[in-house]
Amino acid sequence: MKTYVVITRDEVSDVDYSKVHETSANTLRYNRIGTKTFLKYDGDKPSFLYGKTEYTNDEFLTILNDVDGEWYVEDTTSL
Questions:
Q1: Which among 50, 48, 56 has a CA at the least distance from the CA of 3?
Q2: 23-69 residue pLDDT tens
Q3: Entry pTM
Q4: Pairing between β-strand 36-42 and β-strand 2-8 as defined by DSSP bridges
Q5: How far is 32 from 53, CA to CA, in rounded Å?
Q6: Given this model, what pLDDT does residue 29 score?
Q7: Residue 36 near residue 3 (C-beta atoms within 8 A)
Q8: 6 pairs with which residues across the strands?
Q9: Taking the CB of residue 74, how many other CB atoms lie within 10 A of it?
């Protein structure tokens, strides 16, 4: 089961990419203003993410799809 955690841009340098689904800082998706990103992992929470709020897949999809939220990106592929 994937778990999601939001981190700040300043915390990106602390990420151990062997413990998360993302492969490098270059593959991260940022919020609209570029101050936060998120990571996905399975199983036990990596120690560098201790103290961070965890979200389930469904919870995080709700956050990403909130048109008024900081993560929403309009899908223009069908236009």
A1: 56
A2: 999 999 999 999 999 999 999 999 999 999 999 999 999 999 999 99
A3: 0.89
A4: antiparallel
A5: 20
A6: 95
A7: no
A8: 38
A9: 7
Calpha distance 43→46 (Å, rounded) = 9
Q: Where are the beta strands (DSSP E) in 1-79?
A: 2-8, 36-42, 54-56
Identify the bridge partners of residue 55 per DSSP, sorted by sequence position: 4
Sign of CA dihedral 23, 15, 10, 45: positive
CA 17 to chain centroid, in Å, comes to: 13
Give the single-character DSSP code of 78: T
Q: How many CB atoms lie within 10 A of CB 24?
A: 9
CB crowding 44-67: b at 16 or more within 10 Å, else e: eebebbeebeebeeeebeeebeee
